[in-house]
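Write out the 3D structure for:
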Amino acid sequence: MRQLDNRDFLHWITREAKKTADKKPFYNIAEHIPELPELVAADGQMDGCWHESFRIFAIENLAGNTFDIEKLKQVLDAKQQGYQTTTNVINYLATHDRDHLLAEASFRDIDQEAAFKRAKLGAVLLVTAVGIPMLWMGEEFGQSTRQTPNQSNKLQWSLLKNQPNHELLEYYKQVIRLRQHLPALYTENIEFIHENPEAKVLAYYRWSDEGTRAVVVANFSDTYLSDYCIPKFPAAGTWHEWMYNKIVEVGEEGFKFDLPEWSAQVFV
């Protein structure tokens, strides 16, 4: 897309595509790197664009090289980067032009167990961030091949015989079901309700006007956090923790729970 460098042409082809589609919904996506929020502004040429900064900042934090809360917040809430609606950004961890997450250079020195934990955390970030999640084939079961220009990158189905790969696939199925059944994740509504740079914990709240809601609590550290407290939970009462399928009661003073290393819990 960047190579075209012709905004008039992009306006024309978008208009023609929607005219041809007639009454059918038609969604135009710009694979433009580096990303440009103005491409998808109200008077922009396209409807959505690839959110490359999501991949970059998510991987930096998942690899453990840094814990940059501000960058994480920017890519989880793309409005902070100048985007206007949830359909403006396509979030991803890998694409046909990028290595799979587990093949990234920053992951190569991480042992397998730790790497798969981080892959699961990445899956939660992907489906709960503002925007539309995009999943590159093989990412859902931990394929770790690198991209080679002009060469095929075949899916390695035999990996599913391995327990870590099979468990990652089941985990992805679970977070996809979460995305499908929770309209709160389709909105632009997000509030960061807890930030702890020392413990490397970030929590955010997603909600819809119809009343669906989700609180995501993510631990980006090597430490298992026992009785971790979120003091400003959005509401007291009964919540369902989606990933572990538990019913929990939240009091007026907040909520304490165990938060394993490199993991996320999602309360709905």
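The mean pLDDT is 93.
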